Amino acid sequence: MYLSSPGDAIDFPFAASNSETLGSMPGRPHDPKYLKAAIDGYQWLNNSNMTNTQGLYVDGYHIKGYGHGSIGTGKCDERNEMVYTYNQGVILSGLRGLWEATGNSSYLEDGYILIRSVMASTGWYWEGQSNLPIYKSSGWAGLGQYGVLEELCDRSGSCSQDSQTFKGIFFQHLTQFCEALPLHAAVPGKTYGASKVLKEIHDSFCKVVGIWVSHNAEAALSTRDQSGLFGTWWGYRYAAKDYPERLPLDAVDYRNNATVLISRGWATPQQESSSTRRDNIHLGKSSGTDFSTTDVNDRGRGRTVETQQGGLAVLRSSWELLDLGR
Q: Is the C or the N end of the chain the one with fewer CB within 10 Å?
């Protein structure tokens, strides 16, 4: 909001006729109150213990003991260990904006750490001091396997259409974070530019990340059906044997209500009985599906507008980070 609100020259529509009652506009270009709110908000987030041992942001807190007529402790004091891809992405664009608004490179450094953590959670790591990442883990690493980003619900086919947008959201915000740093302030006195050294560091880091993004783009492309439509489970070809059969300890998956797939007619006649399928969805099991002969991306809600958004977002990200358009 500090960088772009208001983003045009149009006056507040009622300011002239109602100036006595409405006062000044609610915001002005580069209003310092917005910048202060952003800085304070990120500082609060850093102090909130919202990241797990892998350095990933969990979904938040809820009230311990709440439910069944009890108000519990009345405080948001129990951390939900559920991890989603999009929660990592929305932080990245915010960090990029905080750098541009303050010139403080620590915001970019925090972004680099978070991106490395996401890549590691897919089983892809940097080798020592090497600038080239390699994927080591063939098993489930927290948010994927073999270097391919996944939601926990992808394997079971139980993702809501909300969750089908998450990977696309992540790659959209990653692309924003990795845009080339300007060498000169876009608005002198209000924003900042980067030194040549910082710009080179940023470009170099994001090109390496682009290798991982390209790996994910290829995985997304592999899910297309005969009509060219993307599926949501990009990592289906790997199907790690150690894929978690249960949610992480103290995790609640509020985003995916598996029973909807049963109660509202999403299950096909070829799928097993409702009760068995419901149990398997909650456990994240494959429901006995032979992944080599079945179109696993046609299960559950199948290919939707949301899965196309995800495929396009990772393709665009790969294009931008590897500088393929120039």
A: C
- The contacts of residue 98 (CB under 8 Å, 6+ apart) are 38, 39, 42, 104, 107
DSSP state of 51: B
Cα–Cα distance measured from residue 268 to residue 270, given in angstroms and rounded to the nearest whole number: 5
Distance, in Å, from the CA atom of 152 to the CA atom of 256, rounded to the nearest integer, reads: 10
For Cα atoms 159, 162, 168, give the angle at the middle one, nearest 5 degrees: 95
Let me know: does 308 contact 230? Beta carbons within 8 Å.
yes
Predicted confidence (pLDDT) at residue 131 exceeds the cutoff of 70? no
| Tokens 């989603």 belong to residue | 84
Return the number of other C-beta atoms located less than 10 Å from residue 107's C-beta: 19
Tokens representing 13 are 């529509």
> Residue 195: what are its φ and ψ, rounded to 5°?
-70, 165
**Could you tell me the pTM of the whole model?**
0.84
Residue 286 · residue 292 · CB < 8 Å = no
Please tell me the distance from the alpha carbon of residue 159 to that of residue 165, in angstroms, as a whole number.
10
pLDDT for 222-256, tens place per residue? 999 999 999 999 999 887 666 666 777 888 887 77
Exposed (0-12), middle (13-18) or buried (19+): which is 71, by Cβ within 10 Å? exposed
Report the distance separating Cα 131 and Cα 152, nearest Å: 29
